[in-house]
Protein 1
Amino acid sequence: MLKAGIVGLPNVGKSTLFNALTRSRKAEAANYPFCTIDPNVGVVIVPDERAYVLKEIAKTNVVVPAAIEFVDIAGLVAGASKGEGLGNQFLANIREVDAIVQVVRCFEDSDVVHTMGGVDPVRDIEVITTELVLADLDAVAKRMTKTQKAAKAGDKDAAAELALLLKLEPHLNAGKTANTLPATPEEVAQMKLIQLLTAKPVLFACNVAESDLATAEQNPFVQKVAEYVRTHHDAAYVPISAKIEAELIDLPPEEARAFLKDLGVDDSGVSSLIKGTYGLLGLQTYFTAGEKEVRCWTIVKGWKAPQAAGVIHTDFEKGFIKAEIVSYEDLTRLGSVAAAREAGKYRLEGKEYVFKDGDVALFRFNN
Ligand code: GDP
């Protein structure tokens, strides 16, 4: 399962968001084995209304959504790369995640102390980014010593890595993140291998005041983040209200909807946050739909049919013969598999077929 790490300075709303996310959406994630040992890890489902439409067509009662694991990574303060705060532990936790969600404070509240003085989301982003860049510089220096020796001894892979490290060092030294380095796909893969922190995709969650959520794009703090993202970062941002999400936890669905309506929104922003994380990682969904269940499967954009089949079971990939495919749009427009078949919209695809978002699939394979 995908892992996203929630980071941010103290008092920006990380824990509020994490607790709300994992408590309010926990019931929906009942199909997933829950990590109760580690209180900082929670499974959150990826909202996808399409699965519920397919449920009616497939005449089943069970929907198994896609899910992301969120990890609350506390303890980042200025100086973490030098071991301040939880320092190294914090950095080790970030190495393990696929994407980073950085919560930035965009609400003013004199009762909630801002550890850096006043509210300034761009400064906060820079504080955290600096720590991550410094940690990466350390990692690059260490690897450089190793690869230099190996490259001298004639190791070609080491020579390629060394060339990349030599490009990375001045880039990071200029305060820039690894994911903004112009790089070939091979170099991008290499950076993942080295587990550089700033090579990971980042989503900024702008935590706004409850009263600002409906008009968040006009919030000057959010606008500053938007501008920063446009000019500095290979990243995305999404406005959220951790407080609203926290208040929704104990409300029955009807009341929750009415509460949101009063605030002029459909969601606390958390659905967009989850979807955003999914999109940021270049992921998409395909479905299997039958009497037993409708299930959402997560794949990387561009994957071909056997690879897509492999997420269900490795046997599906190894013994792949054909995939029966109908698009979500065709199936829902025509109303049934039989009707789709009749209309010629039910296709048989081979090994070279590139899966599309929303494909409904059935695989034929050899055991
Ligand atoms: P963390 O240190 O980043 O984990 O921050 P917390 O989630 O513990 O939040 C710090 C304080 O800010 C708590 O008292 C929260 O109730 C408060 N807080 C979190 N989000 C909001 C918000 O959107 N508006 C306001 N006014 N307070 C918030």
Protein 2
Amino acid sequence: MDDVRRVLKQFWGFDSFRPLQEQSIRTILEGRDSLTVLPTGAGKSICFQAPALCNGLHGNKGSGAGDLAVVVSPLISLMKDQVDALKQKGIAAAFVNSTQDETEKRDVADRIRQGDLRLLYLAPERLLSPKTLGFLRQQQCVRYFAIDEAHCVSQWGHDFRPEYQELKTLKQVFPDAFVHAFTATASEPVRRDIARQLGLSEPSFLVGSFDRPNLTYRMMRAGQKMQQIMDVANRHRGESGIVYCLSRREVDTTTQALRTLGLRAKPYHAGMTGPQRKANQDSFMQGRCDIMVATIAFGMGIDKPDIRFVIHAGMPKSVEHYQQESGRAGRDGLDSECVLLHSPRDFQVWKDIMHGEGGQVALQSLQAMFELCNGITCRHKAIVEYFGQDYGVMRCGACDVCLGELELHDDSADISRTVLS
Ligand code: ADP
Ligand code: MG
């Protein structure tokens, strides 16, 4: 068996790659900057984790660089989950962040000196601190940098983080190391902007299909909203799911309502303390509670493979957000359901929240999301085409439109007039 497949089998137990994973891994092994775009749940982590375990990497080029992969990840919670999962597989991975004391940090530094660490997770601001940069340079240990959630580097993306922009210094400070970016945001201008912002040199662009065939999309007008949510949750009794609400208040009332049905639901929003949020997230991840009722503060990088349903209690502010959030369902490839409840008001609510911020791009995304909800085109087709790809299937068999469930409302003409004015 060749090295790449051996690593996949030995550490992850998988027999085959998902689309583009193998190309992405081989590009890293070849030593060429790259940008891999795959939808949420497609399996981007393995693309930057596996190469660090392949022998091919060590014999690769006589550049003097070492064999450590540095993963840049925006959230501390996300880092810990990924590193814990890697350690469980027997992979030498670690992170350094503000939750650790000096001894723990020194420990990681020692392991880097001794060369027995394969993957190091850091937030951008820590990586770019003069101390960390100096240390990594002196050790000559870095083979490549993997920038996860790389759309954060682009002001045109949907989650811009200023600290990500400083990552362009990596190519200057480490001329021998390669930089590989990963994101689920597909639009072509954002892709090019990411490559430019990171200073990638002749990058290989790997862009996957944006369709998630195992997800059934249903987008319906909110009526008796609580009842609609309870109906969906009830038919998934005992299964894992997420309910996204637009406000903290709605999170609390929805959690209560689901509990009265005897469903194991817990809340998650920014108004709770850190430890409360963490306790609820852990309980969801470990299957002690089934339903996470949350604001969009919940979920980035959440890797729970068996989420069977995602309900949106209101319209998200962009198709990108919808793709990310609904995409958390069905990561294991099994059939899952995504239900979006929207009301004509949602558009105006978002417009008021955005008020000037984000400008034209944000408004266009909002408009596109509105059209997706109110449209009568196959949902799979509409989403895939939004991301600039062709959708060849005639009837997906997995959305309310193609399944003939759509209810038309007489006032839809009025709504679009309001929106467009
Ligand atoms: P992304 O970062 O693209 O959203 P993740 O890296 O979190 O996705 O992976 C999503 C899920 O897919 C994980 O549960 C992972 O174990 C699983 N997965 C990844 N690659 C494969 C594969 N080749 N075969 C089966 N499952 C896979
Ligand atoms: Mg990811």
Protein 3
Amino acid sequence: MSEQERTFVMVKPDGVQRGLIGDVISRFEDRGLKLVAAKFKQIDRDLAEEHYGEHEDKPFFDGLVDFITSGPVMAMVWEGQDAVRQVRGMMGETDPAESAPGTIRGDLGLDLGRNVIHGSDHEDPGSNEREIELFFDDEELVDWERVDETWLY
Ligand code: RTP
Ligand code: MG
């Protein structure tokens, strides 16, 4: 059994506006991941620029920051075995058009910008811890047991 780990997930403004928060949360609950923290918030530009700092030299950076600050997001931390990779698999590819049916972006995403969800990147080790710290204080991470823990992922 691989180690439990935590990953940062965010329903982006398009997902919030389209009423998809519940659908996204259900998928992770059904998969057997455990919710550790959640926060519904409006991101300011400073936070957006720091969160997406790896892309600051890309031509799409300003548009990405405009989009992610265009309305509230649902920021969350989910825990489970290999959770970073697990969640990325459930998300699909960056472009919804390239994402398999059954994935969040494949089922719900509209286009490369409006792709519903962010998740920490398993190809960028440490991004999960960095992003969790950026959005949550330590005391906001809830230590609890789900009654059905034996059946969790
Ligand atoms: P995210 O960080 O939001 O979870 O998405 P990701 O890892 O799948 O993709 P990433 O390469 O980190 O890109 C971050 C977001 O930037 C937008 N993007 N636009 N125009 C473009 O070529 C382009 N490439 C990326 C996407 O909205 C992507 O989610
Ligand atoms: Mg990324």
Protein 4
Amino acid sequence: MKNKILQELMDQQGQYISGEALAEKCKVSRTAIWKHINNLRKLGYIIETANKKGYRLLENNSLLLPAEIQKHLTTKEIGKNIIHFNSIDSTNSYAKGIADKTPSGTLIISEEQLSGRGRLGREWESPKGDGIWMTLILKPKFPPSEGGKLTQIAAASVWQGINKVLGLKSLIKWPNDIVINGKKVCGILTEMSAELNQLHYLIVGIGINVNNEAFHNTIADKATSLFLEKGEKINRRALLCEILNAFELLYDSFVKEGTLKESLNICRNNSAILGKEVIIQQGANQAKAKAVDITEEGLLEVLTEEGKKTEILTGEVSI
Ligand code: BTN
């Protein structure tokens, strides 16, 4: 019913429709209309009421509202259930709290995060309405050791989304960054809950700087946004839908075929580091090496200064 009322309001294209007319069209009482209108407002829709005129929906293209996103999804699992917030501490933290009782493919999205989390305990700047701050809850039936591969799938789908919607060539900096002109535009934080042999759930947090005009001076030299790179404001909704659609295709082929092939092709062909001399930071240890390949397992293969080939599971890589 909520969606039917929403559709009627949209059909008015910004003009008022009376409560009586809405009730008649939707075949419910005026009290029911009033209740549903309040629920739509809680979801973020801006609906004005005026005496004797009724209700009108204000143009609201800027929010990442579930019904608007779902209209453009071609997915079967990803984003079938979307929880949207105007403000939250962290979508990853919220996802952890509800993951046990939520279907796989659930998407948590917030217009801002008050305590957005990055890797290695860092903060993630998430100002209101500027970016895509989201988390996917996934429950694939594979062993916990496979969990890290989801980062490669997420990176490949963000790369595809940026490429298709904006025509911008970004690069993937293994394991979890997307960069443009050497500056970070997206970070991925994959977390999981598992026992020794059993995965309970995976939490894939993706933060994309979309329309940010500036960054805090502590990260200004390292961070950029799609707006700053493209020189025009970006439709967050179109980008988000493209990423989710791409994610499901890549994720599906991984779950069904058990290989990361398609995601790896994207990560290898658009890598910011392969073939380059890099510095690898792992805890307190730092080492120089040449980045050679990303393995079928999603690990980084490097050639050490001593000429030894070795595989790296995780770490901070800089050029
Ligand atoms: C990193 O590069 O360090 C990872 C950044 C991940 C940020 C995203 S924003 C949405 C989700 N919620 C969080 O608190 N963090 C991730």
